[in-house]
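tool_call: predict_structure(chain=1)
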Amino acid sequence: MFQNINQETLMTLVQEYALPLFWALLILFVGRLVARGFTSMIRRAMARAKIDETLISFTTHVTYIAMLAFVFIAALGKLGVETTSFAAVLAAAGLAIGLSLQGSLSNFASGVILILFRPFKAGDFVEAGGVAGAIEEIQIFSTKIRSPDNKQIIVPNGQITSSTIVNYSAKETRRIDLVIGVSYKDDLKKVRTVLQEILANEQRVLVDPAPVIGLLELGDSSVNFAVRPWVSTGDYWPVRFDLLETIKLRFDAEGISIPFPQRDLHIVSGKVA
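tool_result:
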């Protein structure tokens, strides 16, 4: 009789606890393998499509965590845990965490937008989020920017997507805008000819689009020419620096003056007028 009771108790324990525990562990084990295999498949597919590594890592990580959460809830259901109430608790906890981290979540969402739409890439020189510099790395929550004087600036992604982005590296060519002032006494035709020769002799200035030289305005102290050559984006600053130096030296050699603001004083009866 005692042996029969023990066998019955043992069978009851096995049915009520051991089998559900076995199935729960099996679900966790198989589910983890399936999650790894599925995320590996996603990674390979995205890699073949030549998608950015940051986006691949982010997508596979989120997918893996979501699948593990589903597997964990399924395992709890096999153990007899009320998964509906458990899911509600998780949702409430997620909402509380989300409210406390809404700034970080905003940066997270902005990081996803930057990775998906790619307004810039690593190496581009941009103005974004109130700073200017070369993009070093686009992360999920922030972007690393290297300033022209070699400082590393970490800008929250939300600050970047909520402001205007100027990408100076997006196009292959850029236009240099110079304003060159000469004296009212100078020969304007000679000035134009000299400027045309300077641009023609600069090999880095593009022929197409053609450079533009035009009389911009009659200023208070000078006649101002607009000099607008086109160059490759990478040559912008070197050509700008060289053109300004060449124009000054050539004007000096040609006797063309570059005036500076000045005021004429007339003294009448001992008083300044």
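agent: Helices lie at 2-48, 53-78, 83-100, 102-117, 157-161, 188-201, 236-254. Proceeding to next step.
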